[in-house]
Design goal:
mainly alpha; Human Immunodeficiency Virus Type 1 Capsid Protein; two-stranded antiparallel ribbon; Core shell protein Gag P30 domain-containing protein; Retroviral_Gag-Pol_poly
Amino acid sequence: MGRSDDGDGEAKMEDGLYPLRKVPMANPEQRPIDVSVPLNTGDVREFRKEMGRLLEDPLGVAESIDQFLGLNIYTWVELQSILGILFTMEEREIIRHSGMRVWDRERQGPDLGDQKWPMRDPGWNNQNERHRKNMSDLRWMIIRGIREAVPNGQNIGKAPSEHQGKDEPLADWLERLRKALQLYSGVDHDTAAGQVLLKTQFVV
């Protein structure tokens, strides 16, 4: 299995994904063992066609991805690869900011969100129990980050995304988009998430 980092923290899998899955033993007194279960990147691309759009239905997308990932344990590289296939760079940024915010709000512990979701491969080993806990936490952050990526996300489609009016100055149009996004998404356009949302809606 080949792995690479393109220099900006985004992981790429060159052929496939190999998450771990717990498999029960024939003897019920023995503990389940973890085995690698190949997941073809083509399967992820096929799933992308069915999962819906993040900004239109974040709750539905989160539920679909949660079911797609199942109970498997994914490394940092594998999770970033899956996100890279399913979402644009702007959407991934929204999800990460949201996931870190939820972690810092709901989880008690010494590690902050940006430590739990590192930008670069931390080298987690799925045979290491502590590292596996980090992988599970990151998976949790991803799903929660998707769920809360866009507050009142069901209304985001109401924000105007049409082309700039024929005689409308660019600055006026941009300000109109900013106000509409804040109204329908509940996100302050001056925040990092707001800037990313604006970028995804900006149609010239």
